[in-house]
Design goal:
Length: 425
Amino acid sequence: MKRFRSAARPAQAIAAVASLALLAGCAGSVGGDGSGSGDSAGEGFAYDASQDEIDEALADLDPVTIKFQPSAMSEKSILAPNGLDVKKAIEERSGGKITVDIVWGQAIASYADVDDALADGRVDLAFTLPSYTPAEYPAFDAIGTAMSTLPSSPVASDLAANAAGVQAAWETPEVLEEFEKKNLVPLIPMLAAGGYSTMCSKPMTSLDDWKGKQVRVGSAAAGKQVTDLGATPVSLSFPETYEALQRGTVDCDLGQLAPNVEAGTFEVAPNIGVASDAGIARSAGAITAGKKYAELPVAYQQVIFDSMSTTFSTMMEVVIGAKAQAVEQAKDNDGSVKPFDDDVQKQMAKYAKTLSDKTAEKAGVTDAPKTLGTAGTEWAKSVSELGYDDKGDFASLDEWYPEDASYDKLGDELFEKVMAEHRPE
């Protein structure tokens, strides 16, 4: 498949990280019967079809416009490629018959409302955060929590964990049922994005450092892990975090590095703590489609679904490239980048396993952590075979991470091995 990339992308590896819809078609596929909008469903086309063959399949279909709400706040955001690259992939593969109208900054629906917006047609395609409502997505949350048990490294482990998360979500029926109950079509049922780090006003690497600290967290699972380490979790919206760190209301933020690069967090919290083994439960997202997608002709559904390879690889380029920027910004602000001490890492790993098992049992998906772990091992091998190894440690990531990093090959392999069987037909 031809790949697409946004033309305007800053140097340091990307400046800046579905009512009527049912899981239908052939077994395991997504989308509707392709009979909507008064258009003929047509014959569809193969994933590896030439552009001429795709154009022929779409020739008699009326042009359509879909509203896409990605994760970025604006076209200038560090996360903007997550919207721009997908738009380009869909529009070019459709020969211009599908126009993608990007809606920045959750302008139509917040993360709390986006599921409803997809189901009622206000939004057609969106990055969503099921992890924000674990009671509604318990199986999804179980896999996100289990990610804390996977190995951690700047590049290779994040790539393997994300690919494993996609595979585990597709292979866990309960996860797909959670989307179906909300009349949503999962296109990528889990995007774990980047691993979590601490960003603190002062270094926090030892167990003693954690004792009594106020740590801003973004999920209940992360809060439990923080408590186990002796710190106090603080629930605080992300826009409030910079000022809280500046005033000393909280000592650290615990989360992904990409949004903090954009927020300037390292001006007030330049000390980064990273896991070298097991990590923190992730607030994972997903790419989901809604009512209009389910009513589109099958060939249009295929065009959109096929762009998920680009979606995956672009997300990885954004979040990992942002890590390198975070390291650079931390150093520029006289900060440090250090792994957690061994005693912290051991306690973190032990509790991660306990929390993962409890969360999976409560969700009724006791096999999910094992499914994820097996997939993680397999994808770690694939990542290495593709040459995506770590070339150094986290602290020197800004020095060795390539400016032209591309994960297209991994996105293609993930699509072919995992996602292709769910392609609309």
